[in-house]
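tool=predict chain=A
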Amino acid sequence: LAPAAAGHNIAALVLGIVLILLIVGGNGLVCLSVCTERALKTTTNY
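tool=predict ok
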């Protein structure tokens, strides 16, 4: 690979990893809020 292509691949990899971490973190916060907030434990939320 050319150096420019390798740099592009690294940038795409870093962006992908950051995006995955943000998605997993956000889903974790949703799960935490459902577990801790009684008002969210309704039938319509399942």
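The two ends are 48 Å apart (CA to CA). DSSP finds one helix and no strands in the chain.
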